[in-house]
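re the bet — no i am not wrong, look at it urself. input seq straight from the record:
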Amino acid sequence: MFRSLHIAATGMAAQETNLESISNNVANANTVGYKKQRTEFQDLLYQTVREPGTPTGPTTRSPTGLQVGTGVRVIGTTRIFEQGTLLNTGNPLDVAIEGPGFFAVEQPDGTLAYTRAGALKTDADGRIVTPEGLPLDPPIILPADTVGISVSPTGVVSVTTPGQPMATEVGQLNLSSFANPAGLRAIGHNLLMPTSGSGEALTGEPGTEGRGTLLQGSVEQANVDVVEEMIGMISAQRNYEINSKVITTADDMLRAVTQMR
């Protein structure tokens, strides 16, 4: 009887974590470049009362065993990197990634982080930066008298200036790829960090070695389907309610036992 109380409690705790992942997806439905997460579950160890094949008589054996489960746990949260919808903004500094790849940005401590959010800006020095002022790696600096910016699908950044009829190349936007992007660690601010699970970053020009290409004047929206998340939320709520009902039922049975005369 007490085992059922514990099993149901593990189910309720697992659904709490599931609901937290769903709520984070919904909260970031309008975050540029956000990739949704999914909660993964795993059953816990089993108590083996009888092994399959245990002798039941001189010439007979049990065809099945007897195992009692001990509940469920959350084994991980997987980030799903399917392509988000591309939104045309008309802003020349908005650059969306079509296909695999990440922009590399330099953090204040000098380490590199990676992002899919291509809503880029320029700072006071003319550097192309993220909305939080983190420069791209390698850095790209626009001339002070720039009147037009062009980003090719392969990442070549060109500008036009007064008195110059031809565009001048000022830099190259590269993309980084990972053997296992699901192993990247999110640190907030639309940034991801490599881990031993993701592998090292492989950086190169867009459109090469399986990397995606760039689309200027657009941003990649979050790949969150709000309707799908609402269905997941309802499912998590019902699972939580059912597990709580198991606890109530086990409590009623224990009460009946204690009231026996």
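see?? Helices lie at 2-27, 226-258. told u. also The first strand starts at residue 37 and ends at 43. so pay up
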